């Protein structure tokens, strides 16, 4: 892993904030230039938060089985994606590999960091194209110059926007093929029945798995993402992240949600039930050509005319995501599985569209 790091990150002397210098309990805190007055209450808003989110990570270990020593929290998993680019990719020199169609932010964050993007598209039925991937990786390795190289490979599983998860065998195969860092983004993992790539961490030290509390745990606004990786990689992340990247209100919300794990699991069962119903009902409509199977909380749906349908639904106050410009997603909408009422509204609007 060390040889993949940017030199400036490997040599970084991290900033040490007040809450790093003293970690015990004290009566009087005059070390961080905070305001002793709390005008808001309940969330310790006047005090800087725990930089290492210790309580939340302990709860994450307890409830999600992700070992405390191997986790680091980000301001959403988006921050963690950006941190990976900043740690490993030399701007203007190194590259990352994407398998489109996939989560659009990987490319945007790469562009922001001036990191090149290579692509090996998924097959039209959204499987990993192993012959092309192997050929690409072989050629990239052979043609490396001292200037830069492929550093990161992103696998999104379940994949946004196609909704399918990749098997552990396939992810393992990618980890074996690639001599850089493989990143498996499991933002939608909870909705899938496929096993997590976390079980591969022991055998593949150059693997990073990302999770989030934004989806199944219903905390999109709290911005809590989780990186799971070797202690060595976690130490690098810790050295370069913003000192107070997760505010106390968000840490408290995360703790509260993790305490409500039973309710969250019930909610997850409801979403899965609605996913089955919505998928079945969508497939019956004549404006729907194909509903791609989903391991996530959304469907990719091929329709007769995605642009027309998108505007038709928007005019009726129903917003879906038009993905028709993405690779292999011609005339496709991405539709989140909502509440039963929301899904009924969507289905009624689509049925009315068919009649006009
Ligand atoms: N990964 C994927 C695949 C996503 O779809 C999203 C958000 N839609 C994220 C990561 C970012 O999630 P967050 O920053 O809320 O954790």
In short:
This protein has about 350 residues and is α/β, with parallel strands linked by helices.
Beta-strand proportion: 5-15%
Bound molecules: 4'-deoxy-4'-aminopyridoxal-5'-phosphate
Q: Quick one: overall form?
A: globular
Low-confidence stretches: none
Mean pLDDT: 96
Q: Please give the largest β-sheet.
A: 7 strands, mixed
Rg result: 22 Å
The beta-strand count equals: 11
Looking at the structure, the CATH topology of the largest domain is Aspartate Aminotransferase, domain 2
* Element-level helix/strand string: HHHEHEHEHEHEEEHHHEEHEEH
Relevant CATH superfamily of the largest domain: Type I PLP-dependent aspartate aminotransferase-like (Major domain)
CATH architecture of the largest domain: 3-Layer(aba) Sandwich
Strand order of the largest sheet: 1-7-6-5-4-2-3
Class of the largest domain, according to the CATH hierarchy?
Alpha Beta
Q: Structural class per helix/strand content?
A: alpha/beta
Oligomer: single chain
Count up the helices.
12
How many domains? The number is: 2
User: Terminal Cα separation, in Å?
Assistant: 59 Å
Q: What proportion of the residues is helical, as a percent range?
A: 25-40%
Give an overview of the whole structure.
- This protein is of the alpha/beta class and 356 residues long.
- It folds into two domains: 7-259, Aspartate Aminotransferase, domain 2 (3-Layer(aba) Sandwich); 262-355, Aspartate Aminotransferase, domain 1 (Alpha-Beta Complex).
- It is 38% helix and 15% strand.
- It contains twelve helices and eleven strands.
- The protein has helices spanning 7-10, 18-21, 54-64, 76-88, 105-112, 130-142, 168-177, 231-240, 248-259, 261-284, 306-315, 340-355, and strands at residues 71-75, 95-98, 116-119, 150-156, 181-185, 207-212, 224-228, 288-291, 298-303, 321-322, 332-336.
- A seven-stranded mixed beta sheet has the order 1-7-6-5-4-2-3, sandwiched between helices. Strands 8-9-11-10 form a four-stranded antiparallel beta sheet, with helices on one face.
- A hairpin with a 6-residue loop joins strand 8 and strand 9.
- Helix 3 (54-64) packs parallel to helix 9 (248-259).
- The longest helix has 24 residues, at 261-284.
- The model has no long low-confidence stretch (mean pLDDT 96).
- Residues 76-78, 103, 156, 160, 185, 187, 212, 214, 220, 225 line the site of 4'-deoxy-4'-aminopyridoxal-5'-phosphate.
């Amino acid at each position: 892993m060390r040889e993949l790091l940017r030199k400036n990150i490997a040599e970084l002397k991290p900033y040490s904030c007040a809450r790093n210098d003293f970690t015990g309990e004290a009566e009087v805190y005059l070390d961080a230039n905070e305001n002793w007055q709390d005008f808001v209450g309940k969330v310790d808003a006047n005090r800087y938060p725990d930089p290492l989110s210790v309580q939340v990570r302990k709860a994450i270990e307890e409830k999600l089985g992700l070992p405390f020593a191997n986790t680091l929290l980000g301001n959403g998993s988006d921050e963690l994606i950006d941190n990976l680019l900043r740690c490993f990719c030399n701007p203007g020199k190194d590259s990352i590999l994407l398998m489109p169609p996939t989560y659009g932010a990987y490319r945007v964050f790469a562009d922001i960091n001036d990191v090149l993007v290579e692509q090996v598209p998924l097959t039209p039925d959204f499987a990993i194209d192993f012959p092309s991937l192997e050929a690409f990786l072989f050629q990239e390795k052979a043609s490396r110059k001292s200037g830069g190289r492929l550093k990161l490979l992103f696998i999104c599983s379940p994949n946004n926007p196609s909704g399918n998860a990749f098997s552990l065998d396939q992810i393992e195969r990618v980890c074996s093929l690639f001599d850089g860092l493989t990143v498996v983004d499991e933002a939608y993992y909870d909705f899938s029945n496929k096993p997590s790539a976390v079980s591969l961490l022991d055998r593949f030290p150059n693997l990073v798995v990302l999770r989030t509390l934004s989806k199944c745990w219903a905390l999109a606004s709290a911005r809590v993402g989780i990186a799971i990786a070797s202690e060595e990689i976690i130490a690098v992340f810790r050295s370069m992240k913003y000192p107070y990247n997760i505010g106390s209100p968000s840490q408290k919300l995360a703790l509260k949600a993790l305490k409500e794990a039973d309710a969250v699991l019930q909610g997850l069962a409801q979403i899965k039930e609605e996913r089955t119903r919505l998928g079945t009902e969508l497939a019956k409509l004549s404006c729907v050509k194909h509903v791609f199977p989903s391991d996530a909380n959304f469907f990719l749906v091929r329709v007769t005319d995605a642009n027309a349908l998108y505007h038709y639904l928007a005019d009726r106050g129903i917003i879906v995501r038009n993905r028709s410009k993405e690779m292999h997603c011609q005339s496709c909408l991405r539709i989140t599985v909502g509440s039963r009422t929301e899904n009924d509204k969507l289905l009624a609007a689509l049925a009315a569209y068919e009649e006009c």
